[in-house]
Each structure stands twice: as structure tokens, then as C-alpha cells.
Amino acid sequence: QVQLVESGGGLAQAGDSLRLSCAASGATFSSYVMGWFRQAPGKEREFVAAISRSGGATYYADSVKGRFTISRDNAKNMVYLQMKRLKPEDTAVYYCAADKSYASRWYVPLLASESNSWGQGTQVTVSS
Asked: Most C-beta atoms within 10 A of its C-beta, which of 13, 15, 79, 107?
């Protein structure tokens, strides 16, 4: 089972940038599809971005497409979320997620969240 620890959250103003990091340990990192989810106060956790095992493919929620970029470094067991042009509606706790299931569409098991491993989350607050 992979262990995940997020970092890099904090306070930002609308239009600012932040980069989140997620350190993975305890398993073969490159065997996991990785992703980010977020949960705003009073709302359900929602998908943000996913990256394939090799890092060669990415998939984004429409709400962040063009503003956020997910990347990974398999040599360092790290996954990142670069967030640009932040909006107040991006305020949430951001969670790193990992899934090692296989599917014809590689991101589907992660989005389904049935077997994800999760980090503890990091708070991102964006003021207007």
C-alpha cells in the first residue's frame, strides 16, 4: 500500500499561482496512476487531475483545464500540481490519490475512487 503526503498548500490571492507536491512511499510508485482531488467546505470531494503511470498522459476536470498542470517524477516518487490563475472557487482541501488498477481508459479507476489510496490533504485558500 502506498503512503502519500501532500505539501505546498497555503493562502493565495486570485490570479496567483501555487504548486502542490505529493511524496509517495511504501510501494512501486511507477505502478500507480496518480491524481489530485479536492473538497470544498460543504461539498463532496471532486476530481481535479490525473496522470498516467509513465507521465505521458494527463486528464483534467473541465474546471481546471488550462490553469492546472499535473506532473510526476518517477525517480523521486513525487507528483505535482501546478496551479495558475487561481480563483476563489479553487479554495478546498486538496488530496493526492493513487490507484494501481488497470482499465482500458487508464484514468477511470482513479476517478471511481473505489480503491484509491489517499493523502491527508493540504488546504488551499484563495481570496478575491
From this structure: 79
Amino acid identity at 117: S
Please state, in angstroms and rounded to a whole number, the distance separating the CA atoms of residues 27 and 13.
36
32: its cell numbers: 500507480
Q: How many helices (H) and strands (E) does the chain have?
A: 1, 11
Q: Which residues does residue 117 pair with via DSSP β-bridges, in sequence order?
A: 98
CA 116 → CA 2, 65, 69, distances in Å? 10, 22, 21
Cell 473505489 appears where?
A: 114
Q: Which pLDDT tens digit goes with each residue over 67-108?
A: 999 999 999 999 999 999 999 999 999 999 999 999 999 999
Compute φ and ψ for 83, nearest 5 degrees. -115, 125
The answer to whether 119 and 8 are in contact (CB under 8 A) is no
